[in-house]
Task: structure prediction
Amino acid sequence: MSCRNSNPNKPWWFLVAGIIFLCLSGSTAAQQQPTGPPPGAGPPLNKNPNLDDRIRQVDEGRLRSAEVDAGTEERNQKLLQAAIANMKEDFSRIQILRNDIAKNLVAHKPLDYRLISEQTAEINKRTSRLNVYMRARPAAVEKEDTSTELKSEEMISALVRLCKLIDSFTENPALKNADSVDAKEIAKARENNANADRDLLSIIKLSASLQKKAEHLSR
Result:
């Protein structure tokens, strides 16, 4: 297997940042829609002596509403920045864990099942969190899964496969060059996106199986 290190600093997180921002700002945009009638469509002038007070109350209400909108926008920005930070950390960390696993395999060290259980559990947790934002979808046509629980002798080959899946996922052009896709390459971009979804879901599933088996063997 290849023992090269994956670069943990790929600028991919902007892919979902826009989606998150749109979801967060939806309520703010709705609040900012004009609710009054169009010019010239209002009722005749009101001669009520309390009109000035009413106008003042409306103006004060609008000011308060503007303050609320500004507060909501600020909170949305903080949530967006926190989400991006989490994604960057998760993306970097799964590559570091992959490199640690690959290094031990290449060195032909005896399998430390307790360590493997911890590593694969963290990979599963972080890729599952990434999928909260990426919302990976399985292929439209997918073979029925007939796999069974991993056998002890399959641990090494399964760990090798996990490392290759992480390589494929983190090096996918869909996660690296999404801002520079040419219109002529839309079909290829869709294929890359489908591959990224497939790899992410496979990592989540395989890491869970490895964690379960390693935990059992560590006992």
Q: What stands out?
A: The CA atoms of residues 114 and 219 lie 9 Å apart. The two ends are 28 Å apart (CA to CA).
